[in-house]
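Support request, please re-run this one:
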Amino acid sequence: MVLGTQLVGLVLALVLGLARGEQVPQGADLGWSVAAGFAGVLGISALYRGLAVGRMGVVAPTTGVLAAVIPVVVGFATEGVPDPMVVAGIVTALVAVVLVTRAPTHEDDERPSGAGWALLSGVMIGLFNVCIGQLSGDGALLPLVVVRLVQSICLVAAILLLRQPWRVDRDLLAKLVLVGVLDMTGNAAFILAAQTGQLAIAAVLSSLYPVTTVILAIALLRERVTRGHLVGIGLTAVAIVLIGLGTATL
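Re-run finished. Output below.
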């Protein structure tokens, strides 16, 4: 399933990138794209493994916070500390990520925490964001082709070595294509955001994606919402306003 979404994103990014007349990544851009591909595939694989064997209440927030904090630290070091209001918004956003992604814990849950997988996932996804943020403004889509190609090669190698099933049910093909398109669109938007603004701000705002997931789960799947979820959703709005106001003053 993951391999299929990567291939869909690769093809779409290639077609749109060529249509836009983007240049094939070279030099530093090529290196950062390859590095992002390796970091991304390790990060997402560790996340799925952690969710499968560990507790979501540990894995999800740990991964989300690390994935946001690492680019923030790098952004502060390379681009300087932004307006105090932006910093306040970033801190608020990190708190919101923890609250929104934390699932209710069960005392009878004897599964391992999955913290190790979460740490690996968070670090790798954070490094993925850092690598993507280093791309020049020469293009956003063709670098994603390189990223997707590297990830696809790694996934094919893993499937062959581990002898994992790879066929996808026909009923899932439409959903697979949709996920691939949305994933590619999100990554392209992040690249453009990082190129036109600050890496720290782009990384934190993109890390708020679990809020959308929680809202959709509540609205469509009628999942139970906790008080922490509601507070986290509210803090998300506050964080976005603070970052927006602070950016406007720059």
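Residues 2-103+111-248 form one domain. The chain has one domain: 2-103+111-248.
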